[in-house]
Structures are given as structure tokens and as C-alpha cells.
Amino acid sequence: MTNHLIELTPTELAEALKNHSVTLVDVREPAEYAAEHIHGALLFPLSTFDPTALPMDPNKPIVLNCGIGKRSAMAAAKCAQAGVAINRHLRGGLSAWKATGLPTAFIDPASGQTRDRG
Questions:
Q1: Where do the structural domains in the chain lie, given as residue ranges?
Q2: Residues with Cβ < 8 Å from 36, sequence gap 6 or more?
Q3: What is the pTM of this model?
Q4: For the domain 6-102, what is the CATH superfamily, name and number?
């Protein structure tokens, strides 16, 4: 089974998130996610990634993201191997998102609350 990877641009992903039409899954590690992530992203680190544990909603396809796009592509390959139909990711990852000028969030270590950046 070939898993053709669909690459979304930061602008396309931002629009989909605004419309609540996708579920964003960040596959980076917890410390990376805490330091900075796209607001609303769920954390499923690649080191413990289980495609069958992802929140599947037939009306909201999952989009994978990471720092530059390499690990999200690896996660998509793991999905294909497991027979889980997830084949979308953010082209260029968080780096491309930030380069486009889109906002990020971080976890404030003092309060544990999510704060917006940008």
C-alpha cells in the first residue's frame, strides 16, 4: 500500500485550523512541544507514536507536524504501515509556520498554562 503524502502549506493549515476542519498532531518530543507549538496541536511524540491511538474523526482529517517536516513524514509512513489512513503533514513543519509569520504557543513553566506567542 503506497501512502502518497499530502503536504499542506502553513497558510493552508492555518485556514483549516481556523475552520476547525482538521485535527493537528505534533509528533515532536514533549520538551520541544512545551517550548513552542502551533496552538491547538495535540502531542503524540514520534518516539512513542502509535497510529492506532490517534483521535480519528471521519469529518476532521489528521495533519501531522514537527519541526521541519522530517518526523511528520516518518509518522505518516508509520501510519501507512499500520493501515491507518493518515497522509497529511505540514510542509516545512513549525519552521515554515513561523517563517510565514503565523503565531505559536508555549507552555509557561511558571503556571503550566498555554500562552500565545506572535
A1: 6-102
A2: 94, 104, 105, 106, 117
A3: 0.93
A4: Rhodanese-like domain (3.40.250.10)
